């Protein structure tokens, strides 16, 4: 067992997190730098400090010969709350009271977009591995997130046209139109459009991310691959299509889907969960355009489009058209 000479505790000098405790541990291995493999030493310190041999209770922040500096993990340190709360910077003078809401809601959307990409990438892997139960579970989670996103439009609808006008000029050309995560999601669902890449400088990280999504199989491709793996007759031309293009609706796929609805309850539940997501995507677009209409009327968008007219042209376009085409066949 290592000899621990002394432990001092105190609050950290930096950071506003008052829940965080800082430990300075003096030990006998004076000249030896800390070694991650030295788990025995770590556990000894952990027991001394927290009475529990739980390594996760503490994290090492720096080392000096003979001294180790630790902090406990707290709510704020784990979630980086201080950093997060420093990311809202209204641009209006004052600033205008309502600008914070506008920033907060967009940032929370972007966080959910990140989570959706995380879930959908996982879902594609599940389809590739044929794990249908977990795929269904993940699809339900994705749709729950969308239902939350649709509801959040309620909050923005409390922003009156006058309130929005109090800071709109400051947005300059910034628009949700430029949200690269939203475009990634579109590509992932199958709404591929190489022109959308033009909004991001070539070579930039955002451009590269979108380029990769453009060339990758979509959620629908992964689902059809899963069906093929189950022995369904999905044509090779459908499975090995050019992924950078929108997939054409396929009568052969629709025949397979009709058969699944009639004979395979679990996979037909997966199909219905995909329809739930498709419906939610369209509902979000509808709620967004109505919110935009009541806030800016027929004005142009900050992103340079005609505004409401442009947004209306994106309505009622399903991402999984084959699943809609079969509805009248039963
Ligand atoms: C007062 C609030 C909002 C207004 C007035 C507004 C207005 C608009 C307008 C006019 C457009 C068309 C593009 C343009 O020319 O700018 C647009 C597009 C878009 N907005 Fe909003 N928006 C608002 C809030 C939001 C929020 C909270 C989000 C969430 C991320 C969002 C996401 C998007 C997206 C993704 C597009 C692109 C849609 C597409 O191209 O299919 N918007 N918005």
Question: What's the quick description here?
Answer:
Keywords: Dioxygenase, Heme, Iron, Metal-binding, Oxidoreductase, Tryptophan catabolism. It contains 14 helices and 4 strands.
Overall description:
With 330 residues, the chain is α+β, with helices and mostly antiparallel strands. 52% of the residues lie in helices and 8% in strands. The chain has two domains: 4-79, no CATH class; 87-329, Methane Monooxygenase Hydroxylase, Chain G, domain 1 (Up-down Bundle), CATH 1.20.58.480. It has helices at 39-50, 75-79, 81-85, 99-128, 132-156, 161-165, 180-189, 205-215, 219-229, 236-239, 251-263, 265-296, 308-312, 321-325; strands at 4-10, 22-27, 58-64, 67-72. The chain has a four-stranded antiparallel β-sheet, covered by helices on one side. Strand 3 and strand 4 form a beta hairpin. Helix 4 runs parallel beside helix 7. The mean pLDDT is 90. Bound molecules: protoporphyrin IX containing FE. Residues 105-106, 109, 156, 159, 164, 175-177, 179, 182, 288, 292, 295-296, 301-305, 307, 310-311, 314 line the site of protoporphyrin IX containing FE.
């Amino acid at each position: 067992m290592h000899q621990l000479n002394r432990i001092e505790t105190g609050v950290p000098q930096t950071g506003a997190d008052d829940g965080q405790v800082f430990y300075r541990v003096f030990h006998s291995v004076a000249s030896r730098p800390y070694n991650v493999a030295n788990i025995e030493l770590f556990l000894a310190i952990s027991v001394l400090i927290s009475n529990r041999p739980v390594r996760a209770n503490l994290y090492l922040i720096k080392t000096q010969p003979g001294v180790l500096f630790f902090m406990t993990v707290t709510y704020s340190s784990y979630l980086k709350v201080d950093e997060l709360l420093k990311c809202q910077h209204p641009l209006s003078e004052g600033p205008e009271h309502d600008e914070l809401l506008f920033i907060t809601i967009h940032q929370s959307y972007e966080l959910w977009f990140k989570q959706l990409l995380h879930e959908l990438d996982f879902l594609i892997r599940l389809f590739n591995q044929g794990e249908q139960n977990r795929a269904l579970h993940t699809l339900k989670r994705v749709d729950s997130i969308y239902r939350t996103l649709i509801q959040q439009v309620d909050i923005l609808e409390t922003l009156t046209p006058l309130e929005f006008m109090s800071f709109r000029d400051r947005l300059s050309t910034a628009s949700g139109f430029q949200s690269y995560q939203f475009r990634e999601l579109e590509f992932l669902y199958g709404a591929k459009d190489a022109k959308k890449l033009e909004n991001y400088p070539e070579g930039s990280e955002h451009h590269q991310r979108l380029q990769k999504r453009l060339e990758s199989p979509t959620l629908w491709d992964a689902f059809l691959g899963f069906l093929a793996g189950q022995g369904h007759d999905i044509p090779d031309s459908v499975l090995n299509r050019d992924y950078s293009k929108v997939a054409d609706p396929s009568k052969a796929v629709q025949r397979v889907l009709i058969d699944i609805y009639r004979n395979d309850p679990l996979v037909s539940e997966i199909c219905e969960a995909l329809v739930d997501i498709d419906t939610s995507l369209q509902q979000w677009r509808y709620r967004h355009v109505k919110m935009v209409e009541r806030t800016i009327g027929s004005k142009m968008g900050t992103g340079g489009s005609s505004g409401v007219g442009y947004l209306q042209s994106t309505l009622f376009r399903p991402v999984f058209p084959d699943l809609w085409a079969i509805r009248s066949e039963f």
